[in-house]
């Protein structure tokens, strides 16, 4: 503390401790940095420097339809009018808004060197040129309306007192020297904060918001507008994950869920790669990773022998994209090298999401739903303000038109009054007294050109008045109805989606870090259906009420023309689903990753969930499993030409994203069935012409994953082109249920099928008469099992097996379901319902397929 200086008024001296003064000054400085530099506003998603650059470029008419301007010219404009800081601060921000590897949807179009993903700095501002992008113009749309409201605030408040609180909110403020006005907020039709994200470091806090795909953001905003009480899980059906401009792979979903729920979370991002013989090729890098530094660091690790197995590293990137080639030594194991690269380099990084933004000038960390809500509220205010201003202008024009029409309807009298007056003031007074006109109307009449007196022009005034009255009515409805305003927001977003929407660049893969997120998914039995067009969905099993034998069933899906069900199975949301295609490839997916749908929905294209299948390739068989290390667990494969193969389940625990070869097929052959087995089962193969063969599982020895197998049944009877349609791997005590394409079936004891050696011709399992048609399924069932049958047109029926009495093999059977003209049964699946304690009855070669046990996850 100190006293007043000599000659200083003691009453003006404030006594304060140095600690208090330092504390106050530091807090003031910190808040200045937080509000004025580091954090974006939640409404438009911009910091002051971004806002000033975009506004300054607009003032310069530096728009997409105009020629580029020198960056130095733009920087000078912004510095001189709005942002009195260093020129490099402005230029660096301008350059980043032009970088396609920094912003998901760049706000500036750049011409020249604006830097690179290798960390190269932009060229000097005197060399580069820039202009606003079309996306930025959407962000600035309605700026004139906000500026006009600022100029007519008092008049608008008097006209619309009910909206006074909204009209009083400042949209513009004085610039640093109070000679100009600058925007405090931009209209922000483009949801920049959600789409482009933001990053910044303040004093004691920082923000790091992830970019997203515009199409997904628009869908999520629409969903929120339709239901403001929407749950986060439903929002995440639209925004599933961030979408980085550089692509890459997000590894695991737990961090995404936490980031969207709490506003904070850690997301693992990996480089996208592909394996070729003797090398690994990286085609996309994680967001904000410097490629040149990355390659240098990898070379250092190889030199220091912290990573072994690499012989050479090359950067083959060009204008077509990233291509980093890592050549491997002859004895190197590619998976081992890849995991070392992920563990020790920026080929795998953690993106820490911190959704810290300014809300009413104060920093807050917000979840996804709150970010969407505040964006919508901002757009509601902008549209209301725009509509209020437009209504005022329309009312003013309506008022003028009424005066002009009075004048042209009484033109001779108007001219007579004007010619008799000695001055314009006298003419004003006389016309006002005669026609009861306002000053604005009189000014318009006296300024009216003689050309307005023609018949065509008079009709034009009346037509304009009709249109203005319609506009006024519509604007009043918009201002009075929040629903109309929200509809406008959705319409504008739909236009943005159509103009600027694109495909996702970043993909999401499962990983060990998904445990936390998976615990939030309820465990339930579901029915999964697949159509011949490749659409898949899951439905809660409770949707299908049990019926008696002979019922008509329920509609399982509204299928399109020439589309029908080809696969239906029952699993659990927490089970791994192994998908086997007819061409012998294997993929896997978690049950809850299959999109949920109603009985009448079509589902989602399976190529969006699994890698793109080849022409003619389709999902043929599925195995739900939660552990791959079950002792003695194996898979039995059957092909259409009668070959079978058994392979240990563990051989399929390293399923890669792009799938693996599950079986080698002969030319013209295809996989038709895959079943779980444990070494103690019996195998039955059924043909479409009604024959079946039964033999011990032990007759088939285990072979490798990429082998072909051995003959299971001998085809080629007198009837001609018979083929295997189904395989059943069962316990010796089971009954066999056979179903034909015309909706008939029967249940027979397994003992009726005599055991033979593998490769025999078999015995009759059902008569394939004209009534029955060909065999489509043969399933091992127990008395308390249920079956679900589906037709090619999507009809589904669920019924107890006990509805079928046991009968001999060589009979035609009874009706399973009633079919319409031309309809055929396409697929039949068994369901083993749980007991009162929720446990499955009987034994399962792969325990935990219902999702009730835990085991080793695929590697």
Question: Could you list the spans in which at least 5 consecutive residues all have pLDDT below 50?
Answer: 513-517, 847-859
Structural class, please?
A: alpha+beta
CATH level-3 fold name of the domain at 521-831? Neuraminidase
The number of helical runs is 21
Task: State the assembly state of the protein chains.
Answer: single chain
Distance between the first and last residues' Cα:
69 Å
Percent of residues in helices comes to: 25-40%
**Overall CATH class of the domain at 521-831:** Mainly Beta
Overall pLDDT level: 84
Largest sheet: 4 strands, mixed
CATH architecture group name of the domain at 521-831 = 6 Propeller
Bin the strand percentage.
15-25%
Number of strands: 41
Which shape, going by the Cα principal axes? globular
Descriptive account of the structure:
The protein is an alpha+beta fold. Mean pLDDT is 84; it is low at 513-517 and 847-859. The chain is globular. Helix 3 crosses helix 4 and helix 15 packs across helix 20 (482-500). The protein is 30% helix and 24% strand.
Any chance you could write out the topology, listing elements then pairs?
Blueprint: H1 18-38, H2 48-59, E1 69-70, H3 71-81, H4 87-96, E2 108-111, E3 129-132, H5 134-140, H6 143-151, H7 153-159, H8 164-168, E4 172-174, E5 181-183, H9 192-196, E6 198-201, E7 206-209, H10 214-226, H11 232-235, E8 249-251, H12 254-262, E9 264-270, E10 272-276, E11 279-284, H13 291-303, E12 310-315, E13 324-328, H14 334-344, E14 348-354, E15 356-359, E16 362-365, H15 368-409, H16 411-420, H17 424-435, H18 439-446, H19 455-480, H20 482-500, E17 507-509, H21 515-518, E18 525-531, E19 535-540, E20 554-555, E21 565-572, E22 576-581, E23 585-590, E24 604-605, E25 619-625, E26 634-639, E27 643-648, E28 660-661, E29 671-677, E30 682-687, E31 691-696, E32 710-711, E33 724-730, E34 735-740, E35 744-749, E36 763-764, E37 775-781, E38 786-791, E39 795-800, E40 814-815, E41 825-831
Parallel strand pairs: 8-17
Antiparallel strand pairs: 1-3, 2-3, 4-5, 6-7, 8-9, 9-14, 10-11, 11-13, 12-13, 15-16, 18-19, 18-21, 19-24, 20-39, 22-23, 22-25, 23-28, 26-27, 26-29, 27-32, 30-31, 30-33, 31-36, 34-35, 34-37, 35-40, 38-39, 38-41
Helix pairs in contact: 2-3, 3-4, 6-15, 10-15, 10-20, 15-18, 15-19, 15-20, 16-17, 19-20
């Amino acid at each position: 503390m100190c006293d007043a200086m000599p000659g200083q008024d003691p009453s003006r001296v404030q006594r304060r401790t140095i600690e208090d003064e330092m504390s106050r000054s530091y807090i003031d400085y910190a808040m200045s940095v937080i509000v004025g530099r580091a954090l974006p506003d939640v409404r438009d998603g911009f910091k002051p420097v971004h806002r000033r650059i975009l506004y300054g470029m607009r003032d310069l008419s530096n728009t997409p339809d105009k020629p580029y301007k020198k960056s130095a010219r733009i920087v000078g404009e912004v510095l001189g009018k709005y942002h009195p800081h260093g020129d490099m601060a402005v230029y660096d921000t301008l350059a980043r808004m032009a970088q396609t590897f920094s912003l998901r949807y760049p706000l500036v179009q750049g011409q020249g060197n604006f830097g690179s993903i290798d960390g190269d700095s932009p060229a000097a501002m005197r060399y580069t040129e820039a202009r606003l992008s079309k996306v930025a113009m959407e962000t600035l749309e309605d700026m004139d309306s906000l500026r006009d409201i600022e100029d007519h605030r008092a008049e608008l408040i008097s006209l619309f007192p009910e909206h006074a609180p909204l009209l009083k909110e400042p949209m513009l403020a004085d610039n640093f020297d109070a000679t100009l006005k600058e925007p405090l907020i931009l209209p922000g039709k483009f949801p920049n904060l959600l789409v482009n994200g933001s990053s910044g470091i303040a004093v004691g806090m920082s923000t790091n918001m992830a970019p997203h795909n515009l199409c997904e953001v628009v869908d999520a905003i629409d969903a929120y507008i339709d239901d403001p009480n929407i749950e986060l899980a439903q929002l995440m059906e639209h925004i599933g994950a961030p979408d980085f401009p550089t692509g890459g792979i997000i590894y695991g979903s737990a961090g995404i869920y936490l980031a969207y729920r709490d506003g904070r979370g850690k997301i693992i991002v990996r480089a996208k790669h592909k394996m070729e013989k003797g090398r690994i090729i990286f085609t996309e890098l994680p967001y904000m990773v410097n490629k040149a530094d990355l390659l240098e660091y990898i070379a250092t690790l190889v030199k220091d022998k912290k990573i072994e197995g690499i012989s050479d590293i090359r950067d083959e990137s060009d204008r077509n994209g990233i291509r980093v080639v890592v050549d491997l030594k002859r004895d190197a194991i590619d998976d081992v090298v890849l995991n070392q690269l992920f563990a020790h380099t920026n080929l795998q990084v953690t993106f820490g999401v911190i959704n810290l933004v300014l809300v009413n000038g104060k920093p807050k960390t917000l979840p996804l739903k709150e970010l969407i809500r505040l964006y919508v509220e901002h757009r509601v205010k902008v549209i209301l303000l725009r509509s209020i201003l437009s209504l005022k202008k329309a009312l003013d024009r309506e008022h003028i038109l009424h005066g002009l029409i009075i004048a042209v309807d009484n033109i001779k009298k108007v001219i007579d009054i004007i010619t008799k007056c000695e001055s314009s003031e006298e003419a004003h007074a006389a016309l006002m007294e005669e026609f009861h006109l306002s000053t604005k109307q009189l000014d318009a009449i006296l300024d009216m050109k003689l050309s307005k007196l023609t018949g065509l022009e008079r009709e034009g005034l009346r037509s304009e008045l009709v249109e203005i009255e319609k506009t006024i009515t519509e604007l009043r409805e918009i201002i009075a109805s929040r629903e109309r305003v929200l509809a406008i927001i959705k319409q504008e977003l739909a236009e943005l989606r159509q103009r600027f929407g694109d495909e996702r660049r970043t993909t999401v893969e499962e990983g060990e870090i998904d445990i936390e997120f998976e615990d939030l998914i309820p465990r339930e039995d579901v029915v999964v259906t697949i159509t011949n067009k490749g659409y898949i969905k899951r439905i809660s099993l409770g949707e299908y009420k049990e019926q008696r034998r002979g019922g008509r069933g329920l509609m399982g899906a509204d299928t399109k023309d020439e589309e029908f069900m080809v696969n239906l199975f029952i699993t659990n949301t927490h089970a791994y689903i192994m998908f086997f295609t007819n061409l012998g490839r294997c993929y896997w997916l978690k049950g809850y990753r299959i999109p949920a749908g109603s009985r009448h929905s079509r589902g989602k294209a399976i190529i969006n969930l699994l890698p793109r299948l080849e022409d003619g390739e389709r999902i043929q068989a599925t195995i739900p499993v939660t552990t791959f290390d079950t002792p003695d667990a194996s898979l039995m494969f059957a092909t259409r030409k009668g070959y079978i193969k058994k392979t240990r389940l563990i051989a399929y625990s390293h399923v890669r994203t792009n799938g693996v070869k599950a079986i080698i097929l002969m030319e013209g052959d295809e996989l038709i069935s895959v079943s779980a087995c444990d070494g103690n089962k019996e195998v039955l193969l059924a043909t479409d012409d009604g024959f079946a063969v039964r033999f011990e599982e032990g007759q088939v020895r285990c072979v490798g994953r990429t082998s072909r197998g051995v003959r299971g049944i001998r085809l080629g009877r007198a009837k001609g082109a018979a083929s295997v349609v189904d395989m059943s791997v069962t316990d010796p005590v089971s009954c066999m249920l056979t179903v034909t394409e015309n909706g008939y079936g029967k249940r027979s004891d397994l003992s009726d099928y005599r055991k033979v050696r593998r490769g025999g011709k078999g015995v009759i399992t059902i008569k394939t008469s004209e009534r029955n048609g060909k065999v489509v399924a043969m399933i091992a069932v127990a008395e308390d099992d249920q079956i679900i049958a589906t037709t090619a047109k999507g009809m589904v029926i669920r019924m107890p097996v006990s509805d079928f009495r046991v009968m001999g093999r060589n009979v035609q059977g009874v009706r399973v379901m009633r079919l319409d003209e031309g309809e055929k049964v396409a697929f039949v699946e068994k369901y083993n319902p749980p007991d009162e304690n929720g446990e499955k009855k009987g034994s399962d070669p792969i325990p935990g397929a219902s999702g009730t046990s835990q085991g080793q996850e695929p590697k």
